[in-house]
Amino acid sequence: MWDFETDADFQLQLDWAGTFVRDVVEPLDFVLGNPYDKSDERSLAMVRPLQKEVRSRGLWACHLGPELGGPGYGQVKLALLNEILGRSRWAPSVFGCQAPDSGNAEILAHYGTPEQKARYLQPLLDGEITSCYSMTEPHAGADPTLFKVRAERDGTDWVINGEKWFSSNARYASFFLVMAVTDPEVSPYEGMSMFIVPAETPGIDIVRNIGVATEPPGQVSAAGVREDHGYVRYQNVRVPADHLLGAQGQAFVIAQTRLGGGRIHHAMRTVALARHAFDLMCERAVSRRTRRGPLAAFQLTQEKVADSWIDLESFRLLVLRTAWLIDKHQDYKKVRKDIAAVKVMLPRVLHDVAQRALHLHGALGVSNEMPFMSMMVTAEALGIADGPTEVHKITLARQVLAQYTPVDTLFPSGHLPSVRERALAAFAEHVDHEAAQF
Ligand SMILES: Cc1cc2nc3c(=O)[nH]c(=O)nc-3n(C[C@H](O)[C@H](O)[C@H](O)COP(=O)(O)OP(=O)(O)OC[C@H]3O[C@@H](n4cnc5c(N)ncnc54)[C@H](O)[C@@H]3O)c2cc1C
What we know:
Elements: H1 8-25, H2 41-56, H3 75-85, H4 91-94, H5 101-111, H6 114-125, E1 130-134, E2 150-154, E3 157-168, E4 173-181, H7 188-191, E5 192-198, E6 204-211, E7 220-221, E8 224-225, E9 228-240, E10 244-245, H8 251-287, E11 289-290, E12 293-294, H9 299-329, H10 336-360, H11 362-366, H12 372-382, H13 389-401, H14 416-426
Bound molecules: flavin-adenine dinucleotide.
The site of flavin-adenine dinucleotide (FAD) has 23 residues, from strand 1, strand 3 and helix 13.
Subunit structure: Homodimer.
GO molecular function: acyl-CoA dehydrogenase activity; flavin adenine dinucleotide binding
Family: Belongs to the acyl-CoA dehydrogenase family.
């Protein structure tokens, strides 16, 4: 069964969310600071009533099932909602589904003990605290088998030592999820474990906060706020044994659960950003005039519009189809190829649409008075965060190629004379071999 329509009830919810985000939430992006800074009382006072409104509409934490306080709409509906929320920096926090907390909540829900859920997951779901996923190390990222951060057992505790970096929102986090080597003697796939480390634990040193592109970390500008990413040193950081998340040696499995969801959610929000760039491009095309008429009259402008529409719509369809597959299989492993494809397409589409929109805006387009440069930087960052494009292409290609078997014939199966020979043999009774046309 194929259906490209949103059900009528949920469409009403989306219509409400669209108006609410446009009229009430998007303006917050220009007056409030960092959504992850939960110590900012002024922001919280303004945002709490809006979060309450979202809850009363049944749209709070839509990435979660009812057992965790979400409505459990599934990934397709989440995708449709994220197409709206992705326009605004504050919207995901107002709707309780902001990354990276959403992914961190997902693994706490999957692997956490009741005590861990009560202490770390519940306040995270309630939007009271911020979390940090601390996996990448300065010397290794795309290949996690090379990670060196070590956790050693000492009595009833684990003691963590080593360095992580690009730990997003480290400075605002109440706790860190840290991936560490617990058994260097076995394969990394069995020798690494995930720990919950409260931020107040002695020995956590944020060496510095790293910004993306040229703006300083945490900078708030008209084009948005630059997230910052912690370079974190763990020095004899001691956590009790009950702060191991999941079983010992299970870090890779946990990381895959987290990153599968995280990647598709980024893609859903990216549809919104690319659409925003596209709308601005079209508005500019019909508004800006030269002595030969509006930009929209030029074929090279029309090509930009047509290419962008095709990029955006095909990306959106791939995202929605992948979301649908996740709902169907309820298992990220079965959708790895599709998520990898979405992850590869995501930075390209955002970059290309933003770049074309930028050009049509001329000098204004490259200025910090329009969002295009920021979008292009975001595209570059999204091509690296959660694994670089190259690695996802490899995953995709390997999974696709695994479905094919080699032939041992001299010519490939599509070799036309061979195909013709087989066809003639199959229909020999009816076809005159000599008179056959091809
Ligand atoms: C905005 C942003 C936010 C992030 N947030 C977090 C976070 O919260 N927590 C966290 O732990 N990490 C985070 N990261 C880190 C991110 O996960 C890593 O940057 C990513 O995994 C790549 O690792 P690396 O930077 O060490 O690149 P490397 O592993 O050094 O790779 C560099 C380049 O080498 C090439 N390459 C690498 N491997 C292959 C291969 N197998 N085949 C072909 N080419 C290859 C690719 O071109 C790749 O881009 C974030 C990164 C960004 C940009």
